[in-house]
Amino acid sequence: MEKLPFERPFIKKLSSGMPSKFGIKMEFDPITEIDGFPVKDLIGQYGSPLFVLSESCIRKTYQEAYRVFSTRYPKVQFAWSYKTNYLDAVCRVYHQEGAWAEVVSGFEYDKALANGVDGKFIIFNGPDKSKGDLEKAVRNDSLIHIDHFDELYTLMEVGDQLKKKPKVAIRVNMDTGIYPMWDRFGFNYENGEAWDAINRIMMAGKFDLSGLHTHIGTYILSASAYQVAASKLAELAVGLERKYDHSIRYIDLGGGFASQNTLKGAYLPGSDTVPSFDEYADAITSGLINSQIKPTNMPVLILETGRALIDDAGYLAGTVLANKRLADGRRSTILDIGVNLLFTSFWYEHQITPAQPFSQHTEETAIYGPLCMNIDVLRENVVFPLLKKGDHVVVSRIGAYNMTQWLQFITYRPNVVLIDPENKTHIIREHETLKIFETLEKIPDHLKTINL
Ligand SMILES: *Cc1c(COP(=O)(O)O)cnc(C)c1O
What we know:
Bound molecules: pyridoxal-5'-phosphate
Structural class: alpha/beta
CATH class of the largest domain: Alpha Beta
Number of helices: 13
CATH superfamily of the largest domain: Alanine racemase
CATH topology of the largest domain: TIM Barrel
Shape: globular
CATH architecture of the largest domain: Alpha-Beta Barrel
Strand content: 15-25%
Number of strands: 20
């Protein structure tokens, strides 16, 4: 048997109690208000369930991430990952802070334009860009990140037709020690495909190869994976300098930083185990500054951080519908928050907190949503205080991916409210109504009347 490599032991402070066999101890306070607004009043005014976003938290987290990276590297640019949360008001907060737009579809591209983002500041990623999308992106001088050879050839045609040199980067996938490897997107580094794509682009003479891109995965708990990724992209940049005397303008490390949510099955809460922005930034900037890229040609570092920038700013407030006992005697609490609204509950143990003072008498509880579906489980088994029908709860850290991946299923999607830094509330997305669905659906003539 091979000897395992030595790993230096380290001590990390834990901010909460160690879990017992029943999980984390119930030593927490209720969340009675969000940014100074009583949860009860928010629900009274805007209904239940209710998505609430804190603009102050969005800005604070963004500024902190920017500070951490820009103090370690001279040229840093964030691009907001639209698919993480593309409510226009949210995107505009990031754009006001200076973030470009990172989009992965024609729909998101149009949304970014409609939000007032100049095409030059839109990064177009993803495997699904239609010819029409590519034409629009070339006309607008957007940064097109090529995902596969078919796209490269289509883009060559588009450039010829428009008599323009598209500004491109290639997406590179690679082994960074994170498995399963996300090798379905972009060109592989280790097998030489990435270099092959670079040679084809350079030899064609029809592109402006502006950058190199990777997005190694999401919720990446290992900061060092980013150092590997940055080094590998830097290697490609060095190869370009050597072979073509061509300097790229940026290296884009994608997104993937973990938020502080706790993954299902994790022993310790995410807030104790997730790397900080500082750790990710140290890894990435070490990879870049210790590379052989000439100091005069250091590329702009682009980051497409999604999850880690917005998760903490989002809350989902809801109401207890009922309590009941399961056949095995276990208590269950039914909320008006279902997995249709909380898509991330399929992989996170979301923190659900009462919104009013609660008793310290706790019991193992299954927390269910309101859907008439067996899969509608928010927490399989959690030590939870007894709440009454009509009591409110708050699910924290839900700003990422829920307001884009939510499903319209059985019920309407509710209001989304933004609390601004002056502590005013704004509806930024109205709850759905029957009317919305009636405008989309069409009834064939022979089904117009029914006769029961
Ligand atoms: C989804 C995505 C992101 C954002 O990822 P997070 O894990 O939310 O940080 C960034 N870049 C690309 C290409 C993506 O697909």
